[in-house]
Specification:
This protein is an alpha/beta fold. 55% of the residues lie in helices and 9% in strands.
Length: 294
């Protein structure tokens, strides 16, 4: 491999798409900087001239899914969705297709149990990354308000700029946003380890759309972890206390409905809902459903 290609890989780090485009551009003699790459669909006034005629027809069979993609692309252009967030959505879509792009009964049960656990919690926190912010900031804040949860950003592809944009979006909607990252989750190397003291001490945390080592590390700290991940086989789904195999754009509105209906239940009733939920069985139901589709 030529030295410049190594430099490109070094420069773009984890961004496989940017690496490939940059190497191809370099081979054609037109090497792009990150800013040029991001702005190349814009005219000289910064307006998007590449996609402005793109309209999604409501009659399209995958209208909802295409609309969801557009939200992520908009978040990417606004600078707070990581480019890898677009890849993550593709990963999720593949599983959503196998789940008939619908909330299945096992997901609904997990959503109900998750709401019960959050209502029982003394110090619940909802974690928000770039994808979550683009797909459902408003709904996350609505759920947090009903359940009296704090909300905190947590980014895998961390940059100060992205963190600040997401915090600004959330603060416009909700007043309980935690921003001081003074603690580290033990035994974790990535930036995902950085959390507020409140998160560090939280008893229940909702961590949507993140796969890796954090859910396991949080469980080891003694926390109850709720995951939302379309892939029931992901590390996060497998490690969580309650794993919701559903698209976040459906899961959070369902949880809002449950929260409104359940917020006046007694602790005994909520405990009964949590006790009767079996996460291992629920995950197997999700995996068997997917198997049945293949
Ligand atoms: O904003 P950042 O920097 O924190 O980055 C966010 C992403 C999502 C890019 C980052 O957390 C990441 O790389 O995540 P992974 O490891 O790709 O895991 C994301 C998981 O979420 C995968 O298991 C997907 O199946 C799942 N997923 C993707 N989109 C959805 C989803 N689950 C539910 N609803 C979705 N819309």
């Amino acid at each position: 491999m030529e030295l410049l290609e190594e430099e490109i890989i070094e420069k773009y780090q984890n961004d496989a798409l940017q690496i490939r485009e940059a190497i191809e551009a370099y081979q054609k003699g037109e090497y792009l900087t990150i800013d040029e790459y991001i702005n190349k669909g814009k005219d000289n006034k910064g307006k998007d001239n590449k996609r402005k005629n793109m309209k999604i027809s409501k009659s399209h069979p995958r209208y909802e899914s295409l609309k969801t993609r557009e939200k992520l692309v908009a978040g990417f252009k606004e600078g707070y969705v990581a480019i890898n967030g677009l890849l993550a959505q593709g990963r999720g879509e593949c599983f959503d297709y196998l789940l008939n792009e619908k909330t299945q009964n096992f997901a609904l049960e997990a959503e109900r149990a998750a709401v019960a656990l959050l209502l029982l919690s003394k110090s619940p926190v909802i974690s928000v990354n770039g994808n979550v912010a683009a797909l459902c900031s408003r709904e996350i804040c609505k759920l947090a308000k009903i359940l009296k949860c704090s909300v905190e950003t947590n980014l895998f592809y961390w940059t100060k700029e992205r963190e600040e944009i997401i915090e600004k979006i959330l603060k416009k909607i909700y007043d309980n946003i935690l921003t001081e990252k003074t603690k580290k989750i033990p035994n974790m190397d990535s930036k995902r380890a950085d959390v507020s003291e409140y998160f560090y001490n939280a008893d229940v945390v909702l961590v949507p759309l993140e796969d890796g080592d954090r859910a396991g590390a949080l469980v080891k700290m003694g926390k109850k972890v709720i995951a939302i991940d379309l892939n029931p086989m992901s590390h996060t789904s497998q490690n969580a206390t309650i794993s919701i195999a559903d698209n976040i754009v459906r899961a959070i509105p369902n949880m809002i409905t449950f929260a409104m209906a359940m917020k006046n239940l007694s602790r005994d009733e909520l405990e009964e809902i949590v006790k009767s939920f079996n996460n291992k069985k629920n995950l197997m139901d999700a995996i068997n459903f997917i198997k049945g589709k293949i």
